[in-house]
Write a structure and sequence with these properties.
This protein is an alpha/beta fold and 145 residues long. The protein contains three helices and eight strands; from the N terminus they run βαββββαβαββ. An eight-stranded mixed sheet has the order 3-1-8-7-6-5-2-4. Helix 2 links the parallel strand 5 and strand 6. The longest helix has 13 residues.
Length: 145
């Protein structure tokens, strides 16, 4: 199973924003060009153009869903397909499905990796690792491409 690495401060910011609201919120996820650790999050971001000049690349997105809905929706997959088509050098897309405090009484993230499959996309589960302190890239292997 692929492993997704997320910096603790990003996890905490997702919990503070999306995790504290009712379902159907979202945001963009980013990482540095030379590593695969999610270090950046923009709540309700539609455009992340200011990331590229700073060496930050889109990694995917996080969306909250109503209680019990923890698999990617058809909308999630359609959006993923559009993003992967627009960024051909992106080998896969990270998708985090959030369950929120107001909806479930707790906060959790369910991670997926979305990949191209011919003219379509497919999603698969991943293991989530939240990293504390100094992040050393070798701790996180890239997801299989």
């Amino acid at each position: 199973m692929d492993r997704l690495c997320v910096a603790r401060d990003v996890y905490n910011e997702i919990a503070r924003t999306i995790g504290s609201m009712r379902a159907e919120q979202g945001g963009a996820l980013g990482w540095r060009e030379d590593e695969r650790v999610i270090r950046y999050f923009l709540f309700n971001a539609a455009v992340v153009r200011d990331w590229n000049p700073r060496g930050i690349r889109p990694a995917g997105f996080v969306r909250s869903r109503p209680p019990g809905l923890v698999r990617p929706s058809s909308r999630d997959l359609a959006d993923s397909k559009q993003i992967l088509a627009a960024i051909p050098e992106l080998p896969y897309l990270v998708l985090l499905i959030a369950q929120t405090m107001p909806d479930t009484g707790g906060f959790s993230l369910v991670p997926y990796i979305v990949r191209r499959s011919g003219d379509e996309v497919v999603s698969g589960p991943a293991a989530l690792e939240v990293l504390d302190g100094v992040i050393k890239v070798p701790l996180c292997r890239r997801a299989r491409q």
